[in-house]
Amino acid sequence: MSASFDLDGLEHFTVGTIGPPGQRVFYLQAGVTGTLVTLKLEKQQVAALAEYLAGALREIADDPDAILPEADLGLIDPVEAEWAVGDIGIGYDADADRLLIMATEVPSQDDPGEPATARFHITRGQVAGFVARAREVVSAGRPPCRYCGAPLNDDGGWCACSN
User: Fold this and answer.
1) Is the four-CA dihedral 77, 82, 87, 92 of positive or negative sign?
2) Are strands 117-122 and 98-105 parallel, antiparallel or unpaired?
3) How far apart are CA 163 and CA 159, in angstroms?
4) pTM for this entry
5) Angle, vertex CA 74, rays to CA 71 and CA 76, nearest 5
6) Domain 5-162, CATH 2.40.50 — does that match?
7) Per residue in 81-90, pLDDT tens?
8) Domain ranges of the chain
9) Cα 5 to Cα 28: distance, rounded to the nearest angstrom
10) Each residue's pLDDT tens digit, 99-146
């Protein structure tokens, strides 16, 4: 069974990738002094999480554009994923004015135990920074085919739909 995490007072919360377009691996990373948690995600999970968080920020903030995003949003080495994320849930703690992201590990057929979970309590600034960074890394991939929208092959000029 993998380790579970519940981190509050985060000093670092970001998303990033390793690898060339078409072969990138996406990571969610959160940290407090002495603890750094890195989880593996899919590109679609990053995009969906960013858009949902952007909407949540609009709901809870009077002027979401006035929120200053966190500054340093690069991945911290070593980037070693604890586990791969399956489900992601989001909540809001109005008393603490924090959004809560809860990630659940992809269940393993080899391990019949409960999947691990990670809970990250993040500030509005961390949300704003995450959304901007996530949109940046998602859009940095291969360009889409103008006909079907699927990513073009590695040389950027061919899609199976044009065959």
Assistant:
1) negative
2) antiparallel
3) 7
4) 0.85
5) 120
6) no
7) 999 999 999 9
8) 5-162
9) 13
10) 999 999 998 888 778 999 999 999 999 999 999 999 999 988 777 777
